[in-house]
Sequence to fold (714 residues):
Amino acid sequence: MKKWIAVIIGIILFNSIFAENGYNLWLRYNVIDNPTFLQQYRQQISSISCPSDNGQLIAAHQELQKGLSGLLGKKVPLQMSVINGTVMMGLPSHLPFIKTLVSDTVLARLGNDGFIIRTIKHEGKNITLIAGNKEAGVLYGAFHFLRLLQTQQSIQQLNIISAPRIDLRILNHWDNLNRTVERGYAGGSIWDWQRLPGYLDQRYYDYARANASIGINGTVLTNVNANAMILTEPWLQKVAALAGIFRQYNIKVYLTARFSAPVEIGKLKTADPLNEEVKKWWKDKADEIYRIIPDFGGFLVKANSEGQPGPQNYQRTHADGANMLADAVAPHGGIVMWRAFVYSSESPEDRFKQAYSEFKPLDGQFRKNVLIQVKNGPIDFQPREPFHPLFGAMGQTPLMMEYQLTQEYLGFATHLVYEAPLFKEVLNADTHSKNNGGNVAQIIDGTADAHVLSGMAGVANIGSDINWTGHPFGQANWYTLGRLAWDHTLTSAQIANEWIRQTFSNKKAFVDTVQQLMLASREIIVNYMTPLGLHHIMGYGHHYGPAPWYNKAPRADWNPVYFHKADSIGIGFNRTTSGSNALAQYQPAVRKQFENINTCPENMLLWFHHVSWNHKMQSGKTLWEALCEKYYNGVDSVRWMQRSWSKLRSYIDEERFVQIQQLLNIQEQEAVWWRNACLLYFQTFSGKPIPAGYEKPDRTLEYYMGLSFPYAPN
Ligand code: BDP
Fold:
């Protein structure tokens, strides 16, 4: 009897120790489970020294102490004296010997955020040096060093130099003041406005740590569909409390500016950006903000898009609006990120073309502290989009990338989709705007046109769920944004590999399987949702599930039928000269490739061409057969993901294993739903059978068309 009680207690203890809810993200710091590395690290690391008490250095050494103590399974003390095995942190201003070790050129290259990590002999002792020009660099270096241990790399002869390629590495929260999150699928907003500024939740610190660990240095706290109230004094005090925490982690806060704020909270009669009173109102407002938050980053603005107010309400241009705000924040070193996601309800022009049509003529008219924030593609965060034609078209204006981490069009927080391949595909696209060096990455990192400002933003997938992102694999997309903004030459595989090792396990069989699965996941969702260049055929409003038949939206370009244009002849949106001619917005080399149905990559075909159902694909199959094949492959691949995952039970905690297993089961059901609904519907136009050998849809088109989801999150 006693024995059994001991066993049960043992099991309970075991589970409570090893259960993981995902809260710790990629910063788990469990004891290294590989004896060789554990021994190496224990031999090589004895203590930490840090010569200053600046906020960011405190954060850096605290993290290092926490991380190293966890990973080594023993306390690693902070001490002034240098002994063998000291991890020494500092700046050249504290530790002049750094200047004899590292050339001025290298130090200059590091900028404010870069770092070096070197294994050196100092005063006869073997130490590891983590140094940067500024405290922030040391902070990022500390996290990098921890990552080496977490991913079980050798730390014996380190000589690392690392500096970010992009300066503004930013999360965009679409969080409302009532704590709902637009397109949020991971619970409510983590900003507890009601209890701020008095109550500082531990989450804010852990959020900042997670961001700093991947180099994210800015956060826009509020929804682009903005509420002017955030700019009033009581709310600014709440923002200041968050800024106070984030500052220690080198993260600046930004807010969305509602263009009509001077009317709504300023009691002015107009928000015309050329009106003197309006200009003064914003200047005074900026002064007030900077009094309360001295290192405030600036504004993100959505104007004249989807009903938001903007300068066009007063017959002014986007440049007039952006410049007026830019002038207000300029004396304080602030910036304005003005979004190019605009399309007008009055304009009958192909929605694909509208952002370019409005912004391209304004190139060269923006103030120096303005960036134009452009979504990766011309429509809206689809599973696959061609790169946005503005990239490469506005050489005189710094363009920022906007990605969407939250999976609005990628199966919400239910589907496992690793977004790095999507992000990389766009970064690697050649805009042909330069003889060489004109791919999207070089446009946004500023090198193509020698811009001083550069930025990459991701619409956050973070919420109040215990694991932050709802789906445990959603964390990988947050992680990817930081890593890619730091270094866009990292491959999707490298990023996945290091994330898996830190988040789950370093065991080879586990890492290999999960990495394969992650790398395949994006193409899989394209296949079962929108293959061959289909786009925007999701459910109306909430975007949950397929609704290619939908045609009742108040505006044409919110309807799936507008985007796929299926008819008895074929399917797809003709954007060549005989159609909307959107292709004219690209450089000739890009246009030529897409315009010719034979050279257009098949994965983009229906973005640009209305293609006959009988069109012969490269495989020799007809378009209809190829479409069927893609949808069926998509579902089969989800089943492959399920099988792969089911073999991994013994490698990780039961809690996350089961969670992911359940989510994959739903993903499989939803993939079948997508496949059946789309093929049954498109079949009404093609008039062709689903080829023999495929499992037949077990429901009718009417069934799928009858589904409704009034409470789907949006
Ligand atoms: C769309 C979303 C909408 C956003 C909008 C935007 O459906 O909720 O407000 O983008 O980016 O994708 O402004």
Notes: The mean pLDDT is 96.
